[in-house]
TrEMBL record:
One of its GO terms (biological process) is peptide hormone processing. The keyword Cell membrane does not apply. InterPro entries: Galactose-bd-like_sf, Kexin/furin, P_dom, Peptidase_S8/S53_dom, Peptidase_S8/S53_dom_sf, Peptidase_S8_Asp-AS, Peptidase_S8_His-AS, Peptidase_S8_Ser-AS. The lineage of its organism: Eukaryota, Metazoa, Ecdysozoa, Nematoda, Chromadorea. Belongs to the peptidase S8 family. Furin subfamily. Coiled coil: none annotated. CDD domains: Peptidases_S8_Protein_convertases_Kexins_Furin-like (cd04059). This is P/Homo B domain-containing protein. GO terms for cellular component: cytoplasm; endomembrane system; extracellular space; membrane; neuron projection. One of its GO terms (molecular function) is serine-type endopeptidase activity. Residues 405-548 form the P/Homo B domain. The active site is at D224 (charge relay system), H263 (charge relay system), S419 (charge relay system). It comes from the Eukaryota.
Length: 554
């Protein structure tokens, strides 16, 4: 068996998108142009982000006055630093700084600004009219939500407390590997002992360890609300030279110690908890370096947050975010491409569809959903055609949750939701890159598709189909033939429709695209007799390979 196939199997694995890069920063920052300003009382992350570029009058008219805008503009010019300063002064702006990671893109603020949180079309238009300005856009605030769906009361009924001394250990597993970490017996998701209807269901993590793959030399970045980098189970794998807090513009990503800021530390522990130190549990990529933000050194980005999963929000990454992702794909890992992993969302109870989350609808990212210990799709999981794979997480409240590190140098066994699934997938990919560092970002996606084992999940989950290549696919787990680009969202009552919105499907993976493509649109609303919709433009974009990959013929 070649190293190419040694990556542990992740159940129907998925493909996602991302708004990207930066790690271990209190208040997650999506690369340079997105920045979390604060965490609200209800745990929401408020992120300042660049919206679509505005340079034309018709684009300015589309600005939503209900959005909350900032007194900062991002501007791309034809010159360099001095030219940017001259333009700012000439148009009545204050030059702030360059946007890191991009050439000739800068941040301006408006002098004598009216101070209101509304869009300032006049000021934006004045910038756009300057002969050396390519485009300009006023920044606006977006809400981003962490995807660790859990009920503290229900979790306490199962685990009683976060104190490791009160855990009920199960030492009956016939493991070939043993660690002295007190939470190791609770880490059911990493072991080979889980079965469904007599069928083993495993991510083969321990098999990879037995083969000697532990994530050595692989850098995994957690994009989140900060990391307690001096945590006993994280410190040995933390790289202080490669982490940063972009909120406060300093190199220390240590979050404030409260429950609202524990999310990033929990995600990081899944990847890199140190083994055999008699503390907490064991990370999957136990020798991987974690928490970096430098694209020249990062191999994998993991993000477990996104727009609100309320069944009515439609949001995605802005222009610079998309550009940043593409740069990571083209230039990262010496041209092999950075791997972007994103949690698909927890809006299942709200009839949400992850196809309305722009972080999912990108060919460059790997979107991860969840599967519970009994092999079923969890109640919170969303379905969409962009889902490429799934890893373990919690199911119903009486089911097992995920063990990891917690803020305050603590341990927890109650991490949940797709928030827990994304870093788990990132860590498993790190094992694959340890086995074969030459894998490209596209190779990793192919491996996810071709090594996934849906057999244990077939009889207990509806919605499985086989595409023309013979691959089994499910909109909840990953991989069908008739692709449902958007499921019913009963809470979505917006009259705005979808404006230039990309719906992505991985369900036709490996198929021959020649032939007639048919798009069926069905109105399933109760008001369809009184409300009419209009389809003004549809574009089909197909991505594939020029030559058929060799593994297609096996």
């Amino acid at each position: 068996m070649t190293p190419f196939l040694l990556i542990p199997k992740i159940y129907p694995i998925l493909l996602a998108t991302i708004d990207v890069l930066i790690a271990a920063m209190p208040g997650c920052v999506a690369l340079h142009h997105q920045q979390v300003r604060k965490t609200s009382d209800d745990g929401r992350m408020l992120i300042r982000t660049v919206s679509k570029p505005l340079g034309l009058n018709e684009e300015l008219r589309q600005i939503d006055d209900d959005e909350e805008y900032d007194n900062e503009w991002v501007v791309e010019i034809t010159g360099e630093l001095q030219e940017a300063k001259d333009i700012a002064r000439a148009v009545g702006y204050k030059y702030i700084a360059p946007v890191r990671g991009f050439d000739n893109i800068y941040i301006f603020s408006k002098e004598n600004h009216r101070g209101k949180r509304k869009a300032d079309r006049k000021s934006t238009l004045a910038l756009c009219r300057h002969k050396h300005v390519r485009w300009a856009e006023q920044q606006r605030l977006h809400k981003r939500f962490k995807r660790d769906h859990t009920d503290a009361t229900a979790a306490a009924a199962v685990y009683h407390t976060n104190n490791i001394n009160n855990y009920n250990y199960n030492n009956n597993d016939n493991d070939n590997i043993f660690f002295d970490d007190p939470f190791w017996p609770q880490q059911w998701n990493l072991k080979n002992s889980t079965t469904v209807n007599g069928q083993p269901i495993s991510m083969h993590v321990m098999k990879a360890w037995e083969l000697g793959y532990t994530g050595k030399g692989v850098v995994v970045t957690i994009l989140d609300d900060g990391i307690q980098h001096n945590h006993t189970d994280i410190a040995s794998n933390y790289d202080p030279q490669a982490s940063y807090d972009l909120n406060d513009d300093d190199p220390d990503p240590m979050p404030k110690f409260n429950e609202l800021n524990r999310h990033g530390t929990r995600c990081a522990g899944e990847v890199a908890m140190a083994p055999n130190n008699s503390f907490c549990g064991v990370g999957i990529a136990i020798e991987a370096e974690a928490l970096s933000y430098n694209i020249d050194h990062i191999d994998i980005f993991s993000a477990s947050w996104g727009p609100m999963d309320d069944g009515k929000t439609v949001e995605g990454p802005g222009r610079l975010a998309r550009k940043a992702i593409q740069t990571g794909i083209q230039q990262g890992r010496s041209g092999k491409g950075v791997i972007y992993v994103w949690a698909s969302g927890n809006g299942g109870m709200q009839d949400d569809d992850c196809g309305c989350d722009g972080y999912m609808d990108s060919i460059y990212t790997l979107s991860v959903s969840s599967v519970s210990e009994d092999g079923t799709s969890p109640w919170y999981a969303e379905k969409c055609a962009a889902t490429l794979t799934s890893t373990f997480s919690n199911g119903h409240h009486e089911k097992q949750m995920i063990t990891t590190t917690d803020i305050g140098n603590k341990c927890t066994g109650t991490f949940a939701g797709t928030s827990a699934s994304a870093p788990m997938a990132a860590a498993i990919i790190a094992l694959g890159l340890d086995a074969n560092p030459s894998l490209t970002w596209r190779d990793v996606q192919h491996i996810a598709v071709w090594t996934s084992n849906p057999v244990p999940l077939l009889n207990i989950n509806e919605g499985w189909n086989r595409n023309a290549r013979g691959l089994l696919v499910n909109s909840r787990f990953g991989f069908g033939t008739k692709t449902q680009l958007l499921s019913v969202r009963r809470r979505d009552k917006s009259p705005a429709g979808f404006q230039h919105w990309p719906f992505m499907s991985v369900h036709t993976w490996g198929e021959n695209p020649r032939g007639i493509w048919q798009l069926d649109i069905e109105d399933q609303s109760m008001a369809k007799k009184t409300m009419k919709g209009i389809v003004s433009n549809i574009t089909l974009i197909l991505y594939g390979t020029k030559e058929e990959p060799k593994h297609y013929k096996k």
